[in-house]
TrEMBL record:
<dbReference type="InterPro" id="IPR036291">
    <property type="entry name" value="NAD(P)-bd_dom_sf"/>
</dbReference>
<feature type="domain" description="NAD-dependent epimerase/dehydratase">
    <location>
        <begin position="6"/>
        <end position="257"/>
    </location>
</feature>
<dbReference type="Pfam" id="PF01370">
    <property type="entry name" value="Epimerase"/>
</dbReference>
<dbReference type="InterPro" id="IPR001509">
    <property type="entry name" value="Epimerase_deHydtase"/>
</dbReference>
<keyword id="KW-0560">Oxidoreductase</keyword>
<protein>
    <recommendedName>
        <fullName>NAD-dependent epimerase/dehydratase domain-containing protein</fullName>
    </recommendedName>
</protein>
<dbReference type="InterPro" id="IPR050425">
    <property type="entry name" value="NAD(P)_dehydrat-like"/>
</dbReference>
<dbReference type="GO" id="GO:0016491">
    <property type="term" value="F:oxidoreductase activity"/>
</dbReference>
Amino acid sequence: MPGKTVAVTGANGFIATWVVKVLLERGYTVRGTTRNPDDSTKVEHLWKLPGAKEQLTLHKAHLLEDGAFDDVFAGVDGIFHIASPVIIKFDDPEKEIILPAVNGTLNVLSSAVKAGTVKRVVLTSSTFAVCVSEAALFPSQPSLVVDESWWSDEEWALKSQRWYAVSKIRAEKAAWNFMKDRKDFDMVVMNPTLVVGPILQNTLNASSGDILSFLNGTFKELPARGQPVGIVHVKDVAMAHILGYENSSANGRYNVAGEAGGQCMTWAEVADILRMLCPECPIPKRPDESGAPQYCPIITTEKIQKLGLVSTPTEEALRDCVTSLREKNWLQG
């Protein structure tokens, strides 16, 4: 497949930039989309990637404009749909994050149909679409295994106001419903946990911002019990996308959840690693952990491992994130 032409939506984003990087390294011709390809502050990092000047073109496309991707997708062999709204503060979650995620995904798939040449779409979803449920976040026993057959509980996510999870649940379900009777191309979905690592773009992305908030004192206390977290290196997420595209046997959903077979951690355990990586940082102390033990699920990664993905250790992923935050002067000292 290297040498083929593929498209990457939201190409200037954190995960997408890494996907573009790996694609260029493997000899693909890449058409990247962004809302404003002329904004050098948003795209200059892409032009610095090896092979970019020869193999990369950038195209203006807005996720919510009907037909915005028609010209970009014409003649491509594959599509990596990574663009999705990640908004921290909003007044109307339905209007500002949920509907854009759903309609943007359907818009991309509709343009893929029109292209007539697409063989596979790789969609970036999230474990927010897999394990946001009372059963997964509050296991009653250790070693609960969550595989790709699990779906988050949308009603529970709505009641607990986990709007990003709702957007991911609905967008992925809409995509699978769209693909139900399609025979001209197929779709593979990647469901990563919290993605961290070297930041190639010039703007701070949400997941790296979460880690920074622990390091710089913005977060005064650790998240409450019942919020387990999985850490995965961004380069592994990028490679998972490539493996999902290149392997003809790839199908369905893939959890991408880091080392230890996807064993999640508590935020207190993440904080312990960050404290070691940055002893001078004002990282919140461990909370009172008396009472019933907190069990963390295992988000199994056996399926993606069978495609050949080798996971980076959690400590290395967090170290790369901390180093990158310092290099870009978001973390002082």
